[in-house]
């Protein structure tokens, strides 16, 4: 595969962009080699600067659930652009968006639009702190909630990929207020809450973790957490930036039947544009300025172009609910294919999957938390990533990320993914 143009643009980028990329995991540091610069994308495929095509299994890290180039969304964007790129005043599209989100996501009675998932989680914990008048928050090892200072403690995603889960630049004072617990360990969570009685404002988690690879909640875990928060007056926040509108129209909270007090959203909600949101019970959301005293604002929040894209996306998902079965069936076929490949090759790697999210871990341990995720052989992962890339399948360039499917992936792509997996596994074990 010729990659000369990507190579030369990456060299050029080093002089003006830190590390040559605008988000660390894009840099391929964890898998060796150099990043591929994309030129265009359509349906299930991305095309790079050198004209190579790849089946896309990251889908912009989640947002492109319908694949690339969906005309419903691009037409809505074109129309919005003709009216204005930004007013800095309220618009009707924001009201339509708020009503749609409230009708789709069980926990949300009121919602505030922001510009990214990071803004959503940062704002949500500020509101939870204001509401409870407590300072501490609990997060889980290997979960990632964006790059807000409070969350860069035992963080997953790029922080884990770069080996810096506790980032320099976060003050000791901030770090002290973030308590961390192993994912899926209810006893450890109860003990931490007991040790910090009446001091914990919020427990925030990815209800299905995607930032240490895909890790699902064990049976009863989310329910037990709900009960604990009720008993202790703690605000339960589901960070559904990844899982929102992806695992079900109402997100993981609909799939698992557990309603948090607050929810953070991003990715799919913008249809590919930079958008985030946080919402929850009226009583809590009425703490937000100008209704309440907790300040949060944004020059471009509720941007009309982003609202146009997001509205089309959410309306489509709401009205075409059978696509969630289609996505699940695509995932099941791929995972069954991978398992059969491993049987043929005498391998026993671990696969986690739910809906349209899945990960293969290069370990024979069952992966249920960050510790077990870290038992994956990262060297083998790097070889696997590159072997798949050479065959035209673009995976997340880190073990500590989930893969995302889109509805554009059909039978031909499933076959190509499964065949590539067989060849890649065979090649790296020969
Ligand atoms: C669960 C989760 N929360 C928050 C974020 C932060 O979102 P953003 O990258 O849009 O700031 C991400 C992704 O980056 C995420 O996966
Ligand atoms: N895991 C991150 C978000 O989901 C990956 C995207 C990024 O940080 O660039």
TrEMBL record:
Any single biological process term in GO: protoporphyrinogen IX biosynthetic process
Keywords: Cytoplasm, Isomerase, Porphyrin biosynthesis, Pyridoxal phosphate
Cofactor: pyridoxal 5'-phosphate
Organism superkingdom: Bacteria
Similarity field: Belongs to the class-III pyridoxal-phosphate-dependent aminotransferase family. HemL subfamily.
Pathway of action: Porphyrin-containing compound metabolism; protoporphyrin-IX biosynthesis; 5-aminolevulinate from L-glutamyl-tRNA(Glu): step 2/2
GO cellular component, as recorded: cytoplasm
Modified residues (N6-(pyridoxal phosphate)lysine): 267
Protein name as it appears in the record: Glutamate-1-semialdehyde 2,1-aminomutase
Record organism: Reichenbachiella agariperforans
A GO molecular function held by the record: transaminase activity
Class in the EC hierarchy, top level: isomerase
